[in-house]
Amino acid sequence: MKAVLLAAGKGERLEPITHTRPKPFVPILDYPLILRNIEILRRYTRDILIVIDSKHKEYYKVLDNVTLVEQLEGHGTAAALKAVEKHIGKDDEFLVIYADLAFEESAIKNLLNVKGNAILATESQNPKNYGVIIRDSESNLVKIVEKPENPPSNLINAGIYKFTNDIFSYISKIKVSSRGELELTDAVNLIGSKVKVVQYNGFWMDIGRPWDLIEANKFFLDREIDRNLGSIEENVKIKGKAIIEEGAVIKSGTYIEGPVYIGKNATIGPNAYIRPYTVIGSNVKIGAFNEIKESVIMENSKIPHLSYVGDSIICEDVNFGAGTITANLRFDEKEVKVRIRNEIVSSGRKKLGAIVGAHVRTGINVSILPGVKIGAYAWIYPGSIVDRDVEKGEKFIPSYLRRSSSS
Asked: HEC states along the chain?
């Protein structure tokens, strides 16, 4: 059986994380999500096809023993799947998976036990954000209703399918949606009752918005076992589970409250405070008198001294000037809101700090308000209070510097 990973999406809702990496390469414990999913699939098949766009072709060349297929025509999930049609035999059954999903191996096992077309379904607390599945008493598909205002159930499309070759004939019958895309769910609806709905109750997450990345890392961190392959100096206190990878150095005076992940060749301290559910990537430097709480710090970033980072995502190769602070709680303690594709949405979190894109530089004494996004390559000048989103490559200059330059 072949498996197809659909990885050609733009990942706009995940910006600024996706300013510099494809969505399926977001890190889970310092390891790309797509590699985790490939490892699961290889327990069942050696024939994996990945549909990509030309923009990120170089990223995918690092993957071994997979077939890369560029989506050259059309937009949407159905157009992406159509790109692999020539690779699928007439009598083949094959798996199709959205490449930005985090899930457990049992999700795949459940589908493989069904003959013919099948769709994986899971329960969601926010079904109106997804395609809601309606099924009959024998678990045959009646319809997928996309993002209904009043969902008929909390059972949603999990984005994992098993198809026969017939799916391509149904794709040829659908029309472009109001979003300007060919939607795979429209083709599945045409198949209708010939699709078996398989309910899955394990871990599943669509990493579609930045704060989802924090939650996914928390889940996988909970499943890890204590290990220390690094170097720990005297007068370091570790309370709870800590995964410390090879080459990492924990310097004197550092206090760590697990669960925590510290990647290869990272340097922590001296006198740093690392709080629960912090994930620190490879070659990261967390220096003196920093406090890091429930955040994802990606590879090669530097937070040298006197900073607080709470409930935040800091992408690769970021450098914080001394005294850079991320605020993570509103005065009214309501859920933090974030701008996603020009729409203000609630994160569902009372505590959410900043989402900082790759290669960002901040000056000294910078304060970043809750839910603010800073685009990749931006510069934040000293003394700034960042109270709005910052565009990719923007130079954010505080008002006192603007006044002095105009006088």
From this structure: CEEEEECCCCCHHHCCHHHCCCHHHCEECCEEHHHHHHHHHCCCCCCEEEEECHHHHHHHCCCCCCEEEECCCCCCHHHHHHCCHHHCCCCCEEEEEECCEEECCHHHHHHHCCCCCEEEEEECCCHHHCEEEEECCCCEEEEEEECCCCCCCCEEEEEEEEEECCHHHHHCCCCCCCCCCCCHHHHHHHHHHHCEEEECCCCEEECCCHHHHHHHHHHHHHHCCCEECCEECCCCEEECCEEECCCCEECCCCEEECCEEECCCCEECCCCEECCCEEECCCCEEEECCEEECCEECCCCEEEECCEEECCEECCCCECCCCCEECCECCCCCCCEEEECCEEEECCCCECCCEECCCCEECCCCEECCCCEECCCCEECCCCEECCCECCCCEECCHHHHHHHHC
